[in-house]
Amino acid sequence: MLAYLLKRLGVAILVALTVSLITFSMIYLSGDPAVALAGESATEEDIENIRRFYGYDRPILIQYLDWLARAVQGDFGQSHYLREPVARIIFERLPTTMWLGFLALTFALTLSVPLGVLAAIRPNSLVDRAALTIAVVGQAMPSFWFALTLMLWLGIYWRLLPITGTASWANFVMPAVALGYYVTPAVMRLTRAGMLEVLAADYIRTARAKGLRPMRVLFKHALRNAIIPVVSLAAVQFGFMLGGSIVIETIFAINGLGFLAWESIQRADLPMMQAIVLVLSVFYIVLTFLADMLNAWLDPRIRVV
Amino acid sequence: MRKGLLFGAAVLAASTWSATALAGRADDTMNWATDREVAIVDPYYNNTRELVVMGHLGWDALLFRNLDSGEFEPLLATSWTWVDNVTMDLVLREGVVFHDGSDFGAEDVAYTINHVSNPDSGVLTTSNVSWMKQAETLGPYKVRIHLHKPFPAALAYLSNAVFVVPEGHYDGAPTAADGKKDYGAVAPVGSGPYRFVESRPGEYVLWEKNESYFDGSPKGKPAIGNIRFRTIKEMNTQIAELLTGGLDWIWDVPKDQAERLSDMGSVTVENAKTMRVSYIAFDVDGDSGQTFFTDKRVRAAVAHAIDREALTRNMVGPASVVIHSACHPDQFACTQDVPRWDYDPDRAKQLLAEAGHADGFEFDIYAYRQREYTEAVIGDLAKVGIKAKLTYMQYRALRDLVWKGETPINHMTWGSSSIPDVSAITSHFFSGGRDDPAKDPEVVAWLAEGDTSTDPEARKAAYKKALTRISGELYWLPMFTYAKYYAFSMDLDFTPTSDEIPRFYAAKWK
User: Fold this and answer.
1) Maximum separation of any 2 CA atoms in chain B, in Å
2) Which of B129, B233, B276, B391 has the most A C-beta neighbours within 10 Å, making it the best mutation to test the interface with A?
């Protein structure tokens, strides 16, 4: 187990480093950051001054290594635009995104696990077909379109919910539903498949033969086993939602990390972009790592792979 | 019971929402939004359009430009005289008070100018202030400004880009992590019709009416109690908030959505011109490797092939007009009396044949703004046999390529920072710098003459020569002026202006 853990940890660190290097390179491929910082009316002299001021006249590799050396010490530098330490800004806005991600995941699990169980209990029934329809629609529908549809009906026509901001719990309803719906299909199908497999197992037959109540068999014996892979999937999906919140935060004007990422790209705030991508990648990598460990702990066969 | 619970939840949601939805006349707060985040509330250390707008709210300049007459009027300065070509004396207004309670005077003007014109102060748009050398006080309400060299557009900049702060305003600026003074972090203090209250980057900036704003200001006394800027990235969300009362004013509404909003009749929709122009720049010397446009006949064929009238009429909006010279018609000395290249596809084909391209040719066109406009251009070119392959990219990336001479044709725009003077566009692009596609020495000389003369008629004559050459030789094909769609609450009495700077201080509730 220790060897497996170390191996997965090594891979995780390599992935984080690769992501940071690729991000760094891609930012430069999109154009000269000094031009973006200087603005449209800037003269050549303005741009040259900015290039020197921020050290963009140095070789890219040196800039990257310099940034990486400080980043591992928790110093992501200063935002060009907000003029504050990047780490402070990120950790100010991270809770909003985490809260949105948590609510979205809660919505996704609340909808998908019961539907997955119902679909497994009655395979090929109307309920199963309905669950499949929800899954297919959720997978196929772009989240921005779903978000705008929610906004149209719940915000404009019926005026039940506020459209933007984070002032109250009501502000989070539409964003959480829009974000959570996208991960619903995967969780639902995994729950269904897991339940079908477990319900066909011998110990369930034995439990039923013992005369245990159906609900007890279903929830205590079947679901408890079938839900384990769902937990590890949910952990990974949570990481996905933190990164995927860019679109939803932008649409609903939520001042979180996703919105900050989008703004930083627009204004070529390099230190901020690099730090956000790294933080989100680390979240995703840590959650994936934890899911791997959980699976390995549950299933010893994985450890030898 | 269940229905009751659902209804209760809906009522609760609606009541919670109402707290945030309250806006407009009900709480005397005008909410406006754009897609930009405003982190620094200082017109010298934030060069976004939002801060240009807020600059006129929170601060006063020395002069005021009357947009109806085009004349400069007194604001913080009551009179001004040119001592010589590089020295200007200004008499200042008495009785003006800054938002922090301090009295305005010559020391404040001298401090402001000496701070912003110092290259070490790190002002973002240095071209707004770098023409000033220094300022000195000649009395409590008299100040002298020294220029590096003659700069005829000085009045335009003094009315639009030089806002006065109290003496010592930036002295307490904190030191940033990089060891530099962070002047943008200083709390905003001006003497304008609105005073800064608070801001939260990524969310809002709140201003309140300056009750002690001086009488007799050409800006007038502010009428609306509070003005709140909000950052809302997505246009559909902005429209949704406008329709539900969360916002009172938005702009940059796409034409199709603006027309739909107008049809609904629940908000006011207006199309107004802006100082931004669209142009096509040719690779005149063939640096890009695609040498078609070194031949003037090919450039002329492109010019005749594009139906600019139809483009402005069908896509940009009714306030947009076709332009023929490399400047905005509202800018000083921007004559339209230059060679014109009207839509004539048959003539375009004839010119192509004469240039040896009877079967057309294929080239790369680059653009960064309003892809659909460039696609319309591509469609027109295709009709005469010219195939254009579009590369659409971010402005900063495209500007790099333009400077390296790697674009056969680039379809660009320029807003002139709303400076109503030809020097803010023609001189910027044709004075021999990296943006200059032709580097025509005569054009460079004429522009230099216009840029340094203080005689308006001499300036007009010099600029006319340059503009005539630019259009005649087709270094640029000037396309059209931009127009913006504004959408705002029917409760709001607001008049759009041609310089793309909404004067919210003049707005009021109906």
Assistant:
1) 86
2) B233
